[in-house]
Amino acid sequence: MYEELHVFTVIVEQSSMNKASALLNLSQPALSRKLAKLEDEIGVELFRRIGKRLELTRIGQLTYEYALELKQLHRSYLQTVSEFTATGRTTLTIGASLTTLQTTLPDLIQLLTSTHPECDIKAITGKTHEIVSYVREHRVDIGLVASSIDDPSLRCAPLFDDHLLLVLPRNHFVTDKGSLHIQDLNGLPMILFSKGTWYRILTDELFEKHHISPDVRMEIDSFEAILRLLHTCRAGTLLPKSYMRDQLLEDNDLIAVPIRELEEAKRTTSLIHVAPAALSPTVREYINEITARYN
């Protein structure tokens, strides 16, 4: 079928059976037989024949788009095989949203490089909707996003649930109250992550739901920078639990304070990819390892 799809794309792009026949070095009857074979396999006509002119049907248009994707996938597969044959190495390109870039990606890279030292990992970052597009367009092999994705063209594998923690400088005045509640964030000096990520959206939704108006001192797109500035600004912040480590808290002289309302507001970090049949065996193996690691 791959050969017939290639013939079909040439016919579409040349808009002429005669031109396609010459380009493919096939007789016109042979070309017609290959097209007829493809239409028989699919079960529908791909062209409307209007005089000497060929016009794609709706199924023909979908088939052309599929053929282009298959051609790109085949080219990528051959390139991967060529690279591995020449160097003994493989390449995995990961798309990571701004949140997972800082929470999940470092651990994931460490996992893969320890089990697959022959794998060269590349990363592309962006907002969640951009990562979804990168995966759909085969610009990356897999995507890491801090939400569940409902897209019929993609597979979405949940890795773990995440929620926010209140992070404060040790001995911050608000801790004198003892057990803290969501209302204790009202008027609290805070440094928040920049707008546009699930984490900031979740933060703003919580504030709105509980009628909280914190004193926002700064908005920064780096978790590390936020932590370093908390003492200077005598401020608190809300960060994903997946990012916080005991050593990180200790190194920055900080504490993480659980608050029930924050723990109840969960989001799922997910791995997304196209249909397994469209992936190389190596990428499928990596996906299986990653999902087994978290489940």
From TrEMBL:
InterPro entries attached to this UniProt entry: LysR_HTH_N, LysR_subst-bd, WH-like_DNA-bd_sf, WH_DNA-bd_sf
Superkingdom of source: Bacteria
UniProt-recorded Gene Ontology molecular function terms: DNA-binding transcription factor activity; transcription cis-regulatory region binding
Annotated keywords: DNA-binding, Transcription, Transcription regulation
Listed Pfam families: HTH_1, LysR_substrate
Domain HTH lysR-type as annotated: residue spans: 1-57
Family according to the record: Belongs to the LysR transcriptional regulatory family.
Protein name, UniProt field: LysR family transcriptional regulator
